[in-house]
Design a protein that fits this description.
Layout: E1 4-8, H1 15-28, E2 35-39, H2 45-52, E3 57-61, H3 78-84, E4 88-91, H4 94-99, H5 104-116, E5 120-125, H6 129-133, H7 137-148, E6 160-164, H8 178-195, H9 198-203, E7 205-209, H10 217-221, E8 228-231, H11 238-246
Parallel strand pairs: 1-2, 1-8, 2-3, 3-4, 4-5, 5-6, 6-7, 7-8
The structure holds 2-phosphoglycolic acid.
Length: 249
């Protein structure tokens, strides 16, 4: 089954390292049916574009401004990313929500801006340990999803991948269990069905992220309930990421 395999470098690696990474990944994944998206830091995007051109790999950014242009020192706009040949953008990663105080409203605005410039969105949602402990995880991610998708039309959903990333599983070496993933993706599909239509719930692309490594990737990514994976730490090694990206699921 064809899957979507996404690399999120976070704030790691240098632009000069991107050339070798891109060339190796392009070669090693030349025959895969999977869709591969690499999201390096902004500074790496031009180099990545240059060396991934003509390959199976598409390019994503890790963030985008909700504003279109103007007096926003330090920000990067959707039109800048589009002009560079970027196709995807991660929006609402938990690290941005917690460290940079991104709210659901801001995330909703970012999604609308990104879509209006023809960028596709990887929307991250997920609960923390306390919320899970209080048995509120379902209600919490449902609200994150509802708020993020406010004012988004059904026909725009094909430009959105939902990434379920429980915060307690990110970078901890302890991924969610198969049962956790099945339960949460079923809940998310149901929510999309009630917001839009049954068909929308079936068709929405949902990926899982959080401590995917060489030991657990097969079991997780093969799950029929998910369309792929968002991989942080393990994606930094190009050999390891290529192995996961070209696997037949
Ligand atoms: P991780 O990160 O694979 O290192 O847990 C996933 C993510 O935050 O996207």
């Amino acid at each position: 089954m064809k899957k979507i395999i996404i690399a999120n470098f976070k704030m790691n690696t240098t632009p000069s390292e991107m050339k070798g990474y891109s060339m190796t990944l392009a070669t090693k994944t030349a025959n895969t049916k999977n869709q591969i998206i690499v999201c390096p830091p902004f500074t790496h995007l031009s180099i990545a574009k240059q060396f991934l051109d003509g390959s199976k790999v598409t390019l994503g950014a890790q963030n985008v401004s909700d504003a279109e242009k103007g007096t926003y020192t330090g920000e990067i706009s959707a039109s800048m990313l589009k002009d560079l040949g970027v196709e995807y953008v991660i929006i609402g990663h938990s690290e941005r929500r917690s460290r940079f105080k991104e709210t659901d409203r801001m995330i909703n605005r970012k999604i609308k801006t990104a879509l209006s410039y023809g960028l596709k969105v990887i929307l991250c949602i997920g609960e923390d340990l306390a919320t899970r402990g209080a048995k509120q995880a379902g209600a919490f991610v449902r609200k994150q999803l509802d708020d993020a998708l406010k004012g988004i039309y059904e026909n725009e959903l094909e430009g959105i991948i939902v990434a379920y990333e429980p915060i307690w599983a990110i970078g901890t070496g302890k991924s969610a269990t198969v049962k956790d993933i099945e339960k949460m993706t079923a809940l998310l599909r149901k929510e999309i069905s009630s917001l839009y239509s049954e068909k929308a719930g079936e068709n929405i692309n949902i990926v899982y992220g959080g401590s995917i490594d060489l030991n657990n990737y097969k079991k997780i990514i093969s799950l029929p309930c998910i369309n792929g994976a968002l991989i942080g730490g393990t994606s930094l090694d190009v050999d390891n990421f290529s192995l996961i990206a070209r696997e037949n699921y």
